[in-house]
Design brief:
The chain is of the alpha/beta class. It is built from nine helices and 15 strands. The strands form two sheets. It has an eight-stranded mixed β-sheet with strand order 2-3-1-4-8-7-5-6. It starts with a strand and ends with a strand. The structure holds S-adenosylmethionine (SAM).
């Protein structure tokens, strides 16, 4: 069966790695294509397995994919016409495996997405696909149990898919308490992967907010010690709530990351979502925070240690990082964070 996952912009490579690491040994996986914000692949196992992917925003079962969409309305027909003869047996088996209730006369709804210049509108796309399913005897419904069909046209690509995931696929059950600038778990997971997790890691997030990065680290596998801290007591309370009793050993501190109460050369990995300056509006204050916390990170990081830091303030950040002689950027990824351009810097102690 053909599937696609959608991904936060900038995390496509990490999503591909996750898919390969998790499923290539099974012999059931074949990755076909990587597109912006999307991976297309064949998988012969149970689709329920795919719902646990930590980089994916949504999981789709692809009914039809064409790389031949043009500006013209006639390409809409090319996308919808195979649906009239489509054999849904295997598709319905897949739907059942993820808990979707299927019936002979299926209630459905169509969501359409369109980008690029076209001689048709998004509504035209939606209506063509709706018509194709209505002609099969299915009926349009708004109820929760309706099959979620997605019709998408991006660049030359057209997709008709069934959404298999629920809307909370990218959420995590651990996230009970939130703070305003809390990081998406998919981005936190990707940052942790970039730190190359190791069972011996002493792992630090010195501005941990609601604890998303620390929790993603805890979920990935063994570590020696988790350390989190924040200047805000509300943020720390959120971390404590989200951890509950699980994931030992760990310790949380109410601290200022500019003066860490940690000994030098003691931390293997630092992964941190730095404040972007939305709450600290003032540039000199943000400069001071970046300068002094980077110096502290350089001090506590072990030789050969690794840091993964996220910021939207690239110039400011890279300017301050240059002052830290032992720290070198080895990789930089551009990602979208709440609609803003931001950069994940992977840094090595040299
Ligand atoms: C962008 S948020 C981090 C969000 C976190 N990754 C999450 O998912 O919840 C930045 C955090 O840095 C904290 N912070 C700001 N200045 C700090 C400082 N000097 N020392 C420690 N924490 C600080 C804020 O209180 C906030 O919780």
């Amino acid at each position: 069966m053909l599937y696609s996952i959608t991904i936060n912009p900038g995390l496509e490579t990490i999503a591909r790695q996750e898919l390969t690491e998790r499923f290539s040994d099974t012999g059931h996986l074949k990755i076909l294509d990587r597109r912006p914000q999307r991976l297309l692949f064949q998988y012969r196992g149970n689709p329920r397995d795919l719902l646990s992917l930590r980089t994916a925003e949504h999981l789709f079962l692809v009914l039809k994919q064409t790389p031949k969409m043009t500006r013209s309305r006639s390409s809409l027909e090319a996308l919808s016409s195979p649906l009239a003869r489509f054999n849904f047996k295997e598709v319905f088996d897949c739907c059942r495996q993820v808990g979707i209730n299927v019936r002979r006369r299926m209630p459905f709804r169509v969501t359409s997405r369109l980008s690029g210049k076209r001689n048709f509108r998004r509504l035209d796309l939606q209506q063509v696909i709706e018509r194709a399913f209505l002609e099969r005897g299915w009926y349009l419904a708004k109820s929760k149990s309706a099959l979620d069909i997605w019709a998408e046209v991006h660049g030359d690509d057209g997709y008709i898919s069934i959404k298999l995931s629920k809307n909370d696929m990218a959420q995590r059950p651990y996230k009970q308490a939130h703070i305003p600038a809390s990081l998406k778990p998919t981005i936190a997971y990707s940052m942790v992967q970039l730190s190359r997790p190791h069972p011996d890691d002493v792992f630090l997030d010195a501005m941990c907010g609601a604890g998303t990065i620390l929790l993603e680290r805890a979920h990935i596998g063994r570590y020696r010690y988790l350390i989190g801290g924040d200047i805000s007591t509300e943020a720390l309370d959120a971390t404590v709530t989200n951890f509950g009793r699980q994931h030992q050993p760990r310790q949380f501190f109410h601290w200022d990351a500019r003066t860490l109460p940690l000994q030098s050369n003691t931390v293997d990995k630092i992964v941190c979502n730095l404040p972007f300056g939305e709450t600290i509006g003032n540039v000199p204050q943000l400069t001071n925070l970046y300068r002094r916390s980077l110096k502290e990170y350089e001090r506590v990081l072990k030789p050969r240690g690794r840091m993964v830091l996220l910021t939207s303030q690239r110039e400011l950040f890279e300017g301050e990082l240059k002052q830290c002689r032992s720290l070198k950027v080895v990789q930089r990824l551009t990602v979208d964070v709440r609609g803003m351009r931001a950069w994940i810097h992977v840094i090595r102690f040299t």
